[in-house]
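Schema walk-through. Below, the input block comes first and the output block second. Nothing else is stored per chain. Lengths vary across the set, and this one has 148 residues.
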Amino acid sequence: MSMSEGGNLPAVPDATTLESDRGRTTIANGVVSKIAALAAREVEGVRQLVSMHLGQAVAAGLARMTRQESRDTGVSVEVGAREAAVDVRISADYGVSIPDLATAVRQNVIHRVESMTGLKVKEVNVAVLDLYFPSEEPAPEPAPRRVE
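--- output ---
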């Protein structure tokens, strides 16, 4: 590519573009969303992210069968020219301090998104929509007996 062709990258829908004196960097909103999702999952006490779709189990089954990725990961982002706002929906482990957990999620999401994208995170809203109880896990099935 010659120096004169450098500004001819196609526009990326649902993305933000960071301008510098040496060129442009385009970051898709989905990338910001994935960073935020991974950052939330890194926090001890977060069991999982929670999708807002009704029929979530059916949708997940269909997605697995058709090899499609779910669009609702439990994270929503609003990205502007230099700023981002993030909404995170989680299931928390029973027994953790929910205010402390929300603070830890907020701090980790802000740190990861800002350091990886250069965007300023204006807010991170954390919704705790479910609690995980260890007793909810099914007991492991006994190993089949060998008959000889």
